[in-house]
Write a structure and sequence with these properties.
By secondary structure, the protein is of the alpha/beta class. The protein contains ten helices and six strands, in the order H-H-H-H-H-H-H-H-E-H-E-E-E-H-E-E. Strand 1, helix 9 and strand 2 form a beta-alpha-beta unit. Helix 7 packs antiparallel against helix 9. This is Transcriptional regulator.
Length: 259
């Protein structure tokens, strides 16, 4: 699900794209653009703060490269040396986070997550690093596994809450993400982060035991997260909401009806 509503500022004119339009088209934020500029990977916006078609194409190319998990210094080295990109990709980031979970401070762990989220498109970060790492931690049986999982969950929640406050200040489209069922306590917070990267201000209700029958009209979208199925009774209420014209939708890996 993407927040890509047609808006005058997203239309391509000969003069270029505004920063807001560029971010909508690429899934990046102004913070990403600033960070990439500081590394010399992109130029500044042109006259009037507008970005050209050539710059948009350049950013799309960089997105293809960063989707591999390549770091910004690795991208810069490859460009300056006219050499193929050499990177350990996401496995290297996973190894670093595992080290932080075992030995690092809370501050260092949260700093690493924050830096990753301003380097990579949020969808890539969540899908290629955080979700696989969460699955691995959920099944880890080695000594200290529960402590590492607890630290990871707390860090993800904290980052999702900070992101929610940031997107609220930015006035992004409000979305309510409600847990119907979950496989683990972390997955819905990872989905919250992913949705925020698509241009939404996500408020999350992570307890499946709490059902929000009536939502404030400020929410443009209402997503029901089904991590482990949906009961027949809950599905009937979902269908009734749809029939009433409410902006509700099922999401998650297991949307089948369970007893």
């Amino acid at each position: 699900m993407e927040n890509r509503e047609t808006h005058p500022s997203t239309i391509s004119f000969a003069c270029g794209y505004s920063t807001e339009a560029l971010c909508l088209l690429t899934g990046l934020s102004a913070v990403h653009l600033c960070r990439w500029y500081r590394y010399g990977l992109i130029g500044q916006a042109g006259e009037g703060g507008l970005w050209s078609e050539q710059q948009l194409a350049q950013i799309h190319h960089l997105l293809q490269l960063t989707a591999s998990g390549a770091t910004l210094p690795q991208l810069l080295t490859a460009r300056l040396d006219f050499m193929p990109l050499l990177t350990s990709g996401w496995p290297a980031h996973r190894g670093n986070l595992l080290w932080q979970l075992e030995f690092g401070s809370e501050r260092a762990l949260c700093r690493d997550i924050r830096q990753l989220s301003t380097t990579y498109r949020v969808g890539d970060l969540v899908n290629h690093l955080l979700v696989p790492l969460n699955r691995w931690l959920q099944h880890d049986t080695r000594r200290g596994a529960s402590r590492r999982l607890s630290r990871f969950d707390a860090c993800v929640r904290r980052h999702a809450e900070v992101t929610q406050r940031t997107t609220q200040r930015q006035g992004l489209t409000p979305l309510f993400l409600e847990a119907v069922s979950v496989r683990d306590e972390t997955e819905i917070w990872l989905e919250s982060l992913r949705l925020s990267g698509e241009g939404f201000c996500v408020e999350t209700s992570s307890d499946p035991e709490i059902e929000h029958a009536v939502l404030p009209k400020k929410y443009a979208h209402h997503l029901l997260w089904c991590g482990a199925g949906i009961t027949q009774a809950r599905f009937r209420r979902f269908c009734a909401s749809l029939a009433a014209g409410e902006p509700v939708m099922l999401c998650g890996p297991q949307r089948n009806i369970v007893s």
